[in-house]
Amino acid sequence: MISLTDSQKIGMGLTGFGVFFLFFGMVLFFDKALLAIGNILFVSGLSFVIGLERTFRFFFQRHKVKATSFFLGGVFVVLIGWPIIGVVLEIYGFFLLFRGFFPVAVGFIRRVPVLGSLLSLPGISSLVDKIGESNNMV
User: Fold this and answer.
1) Up-side HSE of residue 129: CA atoms within 13 Å toward CB?
2) How far are the Cα atoms of 28, 36, 56, 78, 92 from residue 74, in angstroms, in the given order?
3) Mind spelling out the 3-state secondary structure of 89-116?
4) Cα(36)–Cα(18) distance, integer angstroms
5) What angle do CA 74, 77, 79 make, to 5 degrees?
6) 80 falls in which pLDDT band (50, 70, 90)?
């Protein structure tokens, strides 16, 4: 079992609540307040989990400037009150930031019994193969 420090446990809670509020804000037709709260909780939770210095190093690497600007720009756009445009910018930035982790995640999900069989369905398998074969490690 993985041992977590108290600040990492707090970070996991903040990140979980952030994802919940982001999802709930999208379900409720892009509610500005819920999306703003979700963004703030997600980013602060990430900082608690991996540490402030590692968070800055992750987001502000030279080759991730475009991805970081789209992600944080989307957060800012949501905070000023344009939720749909902000969420689109955030999603694009998120995929650019974390595209190196997708092959690892796909490989893990393929080993899970029920989810692995879902990923091998004809329509889904070609899409998952494209995501899983990404050689662009971040």
Assistant:
1) 7
2) 18, 10, 17, 6, 9
3) HHHHHHHHHCCCCHHHHHHHHHHCHHHH
4) 9
5) 110
6) very high
Contact present, 68 and 93 (Cβ < 8 Å): yes
Average pLDDT, the chain: 91
Q: Which among 73, 107, 109, 115 is positioned nearest to 90, based on CA atoms? A: 73
User: pLDDT higher for 136 or 71?
Assistant: 71
Which DSSP symbol is given to 79?
Answer: H
Q: Measuring CA to CA, which residue among 37, 19, 42 is closest to residue 78?
A: 37
Written as six digits, the tokens of 29 are: 């037709």
pLDDT for 48 equals: 96
Q: Quick one: CA torsion of 119, 123, 128, 134, rounded to 10 degrees? A: 160
Radius of gyration, CA atoms only, the chain: 16
Q: Which two tokens stand for residue 114?
A: 């029920």
Cα 13 versus chain centre, distance: 15
| Residues sharing a CB contact under 8 Å with residue 33, sequence separation 6 or more, in sequence order | 25
pLDDT for 134 equals 60
Q: What angle do CA 132, 39, 19 make, to 5 degrees?
A: 55
**In terms of Cα–Cα distance, which of 109, 110, 103 is closest to 130?**
103
